[in-house]
Design a protein that fits this description.
With about 280 residues, the chain is of the alpha/beta class. The chain folds into 2 domains: about 1-175, Ribonuclease Inhibitor (Leucine-rich repeat, LRR (right-handed beta-alpha superhelix), Alpha-Beta Horseshoe); about 195-283, Ribonuclease Inhibitor (Leucine-rich repeat, LRR (right-handed beta-alpha superhelix)). The chain has 4 helices and 14 strands. The strands form 2 sheets. Strands 1-2-3-4-5-6-8-10-11-12-13-14 form a 12-stranded parallel sheet. It has a two-stranded parallel sheet with strand order 7-9. The longest helix has 22 residues, at about 1-25. The radius of gyration is 20 Å and the shape is elongated.
Amino acid sequence: MKNLLLPLCLLSLFGFSQKEFDKYGPLGSEVYTDVKTALSIEKNVYKLDLSFKKLEPKQYDKLYKLSDLQALKLSSNEVSAYPKNFEALFNLVYFASYNNKFTSFPPNLKPFFTLQYIELQHTKIDSIPAQIACLTKLQTLKFGNTDDTLKLPTTLRFLKKLADVAIENCVMDSFPKELFKLPMLNYLNLSNTNTHYLTKHFERLPNLEILIIENNPIKKIPFEIYKAQKLRFISLRGNSIEKLPDSISQLQNLTLLDLRGNPVSAEEIEKLKILLPGCEIKF
């Protein structure tokens, strides 16, 4: 069951990421797909999508000249290091990389004070640096699909505008308690992360609407989940949950509850239908 769910998750991820890339940069600005062409223009180049391009090293290291660049997407470029003088791209609001073997976040995050969206997938990164706290405008953080454990910094809690977090397909070195200290958190996805339990402190998540905790060894959902009163979508697919607390009936905005792949009894499902009459339950 878990193996069947993963490809669907990845398809959703990449479709969503393309929509995110389209959102950033000045309205109607051209999307450049060739480094040489972008460098020949240099000024007023706002969006660069280098997906599936094998990059010539000398041109790659000249990306810093695109000082107006606001959205940069890399994908399957056979690179493992950031371009030289990467910090010169201080106007970036969007940066994403897929299937490039970076071993760390950019070494100096301080210049990227305008960055709102960062996504790193299929890298060799094993930790998120404490310096991420410098990204004070960051709203979206997406990370996953590594072959290593992942360590989160305690400084995550300083990202007061961080609303969307997705960490998928990597092993957390400990319970991600820092994620439950983000007051603006609206969307949280922790799928296939070896997460064993959830926090009781759902009162810290007054803006959480979407909670996706899939393919983990979770057996119990805390009674206090009802304190996240804005929750409208919960997916707990592929866990080891047998029952949910009755307090879930207090989530009056909940419209979808996905329990597929859990050992939930027919009796428990009937009880949940009574507790959540306006909610679609998948089992």
